[in-house]
Structures are given as structure tokens and as C-alpha cells.
Amino acid sequence: MVPKTKQLGAMAAFEGLDPAHLKILARLAVRRRFPAGTPIFTEGESAGGFYAVLEGRVRVYKLGADGREQILHICRAGEPFGEAAVFEGAPYPAHADSMDDVSTIFIPRDGLIDEVRRNPDFALALLTLLSRRLRRLAGLVESLSLREVPGRLAAYLLLCAERAAESRITLEVSKSQLAALLGTIPETLSRILGKLNREGMIATEGPRGIVILDRAALRRLADGEERLS
Q1: What is the dotted CATH code of the domain comprising 147-222?
Q2: How does DSSP classify residue 13?
Q3: Rounded to the nearest 5°, which phi and psi values hold at 216?
């Protein structure tokens, strides 16, 4: 089995931590696996620790009063989730469940806080990691807010193609969930997909399959250099 120190060091979430600090985390870390479709934590549950994904995907979402689901983020290998609640000492602010068979690293809150109190250098290193992640998230929010919906969708499709390393992709979520993720409604999303299809940027295959036909045109749309007619 791969040592936990090596697994942690390979994660983008812990990039920049020196070996001594990685050893502290590895000493605290517990490996946890979740079969596909398993709840990992629920909104309002006491935050006993935070997770980082080793393999698979985790869906972080909230439920509206009408039971409608709003996906906040899909976490993949190397990404942490639940960390804000842990450091704040607050309950988890959303639900999380496994989309696939998921392998994670779990860092218990009690042990982590004890180490932070004992070791100022370790505390500063964690603060740097959290600040870096907050800056990235702020940049993502700003980028999405400045784009029109077609640009958001184009950026999302390009990201999916980059992750898949090919032009044929399968949407990870339903179109109604994707619409919520992009800040629009399913009807608007369907109209935009139809326009992208007619203009030769993509081809749709079944309910979730999409082929990227004109990557350069999608990039111009995502960057705001062009608009859909």
C-alpha cells in the first residue's frame, strides 16, 4: 500500500507543504472508502474532520425547501472538501456523497487542532494552503459571474474535454443539475446546447454525450471574444 505521506504529497490540496508537515498530516490521516452513491456527510452534521479525494468523484450539494438539489462542486482526485467547517468549528454547510467508488483521506478535527495549537509553523503552513484555495475559488466565482451563460457552458465543456483528454465527453450530471451548476435554468441550457450544435461547435449523442467539434470556437466563446447569434 502506498504510504500516506506519499499520497498526501501528490495531492494538489497539499502542494507546498514541507516533508515534516506532511508527516504530521499522515500521522493523523485515516483512509476511508465509500461505494458509489454513499452519503459522506450531511448538511448540519457536526464536522468531525475534512476529506481529500484519492480516487473517484464526490458531489457537494445543498437541498432546497422543495427538495430540489443544487450542486455546489464536484470534487476529484487531489481536492479537499469539508475543510472550512472544520477550521471554523461549525457544522458541515452542505451534503456530500460519492458519485463513484471513492477513496479518501480523512483528517480528524480534534487531532488537527491539537497540532495547530502546538506547532505555529504547521499552523502557518495550513493557513497558507487555505488562503491559496480561497483565492482560487474567488477567481472561479469572479470568472463565472463575468461570463454570460453560453460562455460558462463553453468553459465547462472545454474543462470536461481537458480532463477526459479527448473530444468525446459524457456529462457527469443531468442537464437540470448542470443548469443549476452554471446558474441558469434547464430550458435556457437546452437552447444554448441547440445553438452550439447548429453552429457546428459540438454534436450531441444521447442524453449526456457530447462531442467537441470546434475547440477554438468554444474557447473564443468562453473567453468572451465571440457571442452566440
Answers
A1: 1.10.10.10
A2: G
A3: -65, -40
User: What contacts 24+ positions apart, CB below 8 Å, involve 1-5?
Assistant: 4/29, 4/31, 4/105
Question: Would you identify the CATH topology of the domain 4-144?
Answer: Jelly Rolls (2.60.120)
Q: Cα separations (Å) of 222 from 192, 199, 226?
A: 13, 15, 8
Do the domains 4-144 and 147-222 sit in the same CATH topology, yes or no? no
Q: Where are the domains of the chain?
A: 4-144, 147-222
pLDDT tens figures, 109-166? 999 999 999 999 998 888 888 777 777 666 666 666 667 889 989 988 888 888 878 8
